[in-house]
Design goal:
By secondary structure, the chain is α+β, with helices and mostly antiparallel strands. The chain has helices at 2-25, 28-32, 34-73, 77-104, 126-146, 176-180, 267-290, 292-297, 333-337, 342-359; strands at 116-122, 150-158, 164-172, 185-191, 202-212, 226-231, 247-252, 257-261, 310-315, 320-323, 328-330.
Length: 361
Amino acid sequence: MTNANDILQKTLKIRNRSAELSEQIASPSVIADNKTWRALAKEHSSLQEIVEASEKLEKAISDKAACERDRDNEHDHELKAMFEEECEKLTKQIDGLCEDIKFLLLPKDENDDANIIMEIRAAAGGEESALFATELMRMYTYYAESHHWKMEISDVNETELGGIKEATFFIKGKGAYSRLKYEAGVHRVQRVPETESQGRIHTSTATVAVLPEVEEVDFEILDSDLRVDTYRASGAGGQHINKTDSAIRLTHLPTGIVVTCQDERSQIKNREKAMRILQSKLYELYQSEKDKEFKDSRRAQVGTGDRSERVRTYNYPQGRVTDHRVNVSSYDLEGVLNGNIDLFIDALILKDRTEKLESGE
């Protein structure tokens, strides 16, 4: 019980802050300032899960204390046994709530509620890799649909056979980054390509990058640091083709980062999308440099986004998909490629949380 009370005490400051925020976001002066109101409302929303769990824990502790008093004052053996059983249930409930709150009190990734920018690139394996990249993009499309998230394509560079050399797209919805950030890395496919006459199994790879779409950044992108090129949008099979120079290529000269966007017919809209992607890439670069020392000491941490790490293998002959970071396999290859990847993501989230608890973060 001491442990439960200690955990409850840790949540009181958060509950007080939540109550304070409730008053502030109802203030007419704050409501009039949309930017401030949104920031306070976002903070308030982020605290609610802890507040609700804390209130449940407080009630369970109180109920258990009352139950123990009734048990100790009861002389009827049957009623005493009933109270004892109820006390045991409440103890289990308290233990469960304490574990939940421990997880909730862990420092959160500030980008967990962000929309994401996902990039998929064909890597080793030529055309087979490009075809695999197409299947990965379809898998994430289905996954986004199953979570009622919106997908918005920015740029797709297709091959003549329908594969994808590279693709950039947005996935918009609450919690998109919190789940899909674990998809970053090298995805490997093992299968017999249709063009393979000898029936030999080939191994190909595609890389996935996941960036949070940053709403506001602490740095300014100067016009003098940008080279802007326009060109005509194009694509295999006549897709994305138009007769004006609507496609945009932005080059950030200080870093060499290049971003292209050709999905919209309007040059202005393509530039807006490209700028959003560039902001997120610069943010990631800034964060990676800032956190390099920390990441070096935690290389095994899930979700570092190390592009050289082989994260998952899709084995067609065996109908098996294996995530190597958590050693979890599914024999429903078709289901996985249709977006059923929560089995892996849930295991990765649990591993991440467990490592953070053990490290005392």
